[in-house]
Specification:
alpha+beta, single chain, 3 strands, globular
């Protein structure tokens, strides 16, 4: 959650669309781990599956995942 108590959502532009990612913070021991999830209602059904399995699917899916992780990670 951000300072106002709202969920943190970042948008990542892919060819012809924007995919939105919900950011999660998980405490693992003393380390904070940040996760991004595309399975939110802002996304179309196909886009919601992009974070279901890392590096799964065809070449286009893999490239989309790498863009999401890179750009989305920086934005988060």
């Amino acid at each position: 959650m951000n300072a106002e108590g709202k969920e943190i959502i970042v948008g990542v532009d892919l060819p012809g669309k924007t995919v939105y990612l919900k950011v999660w913070e998980v405490q693992v021991g003393r380390i904070k781990l940040y996760l991004m999830d595309a399975d939110i209602t802002l996304n179309k059904t196909n886009d919601r599956q992009l974070t279901a399995q890392l590096y799964g699917g065809d070449r286009d899916t893999r490239i989309s995942q790498e863009i999401i992780l890179g750009i989305g990670g920086v934005k988060a």
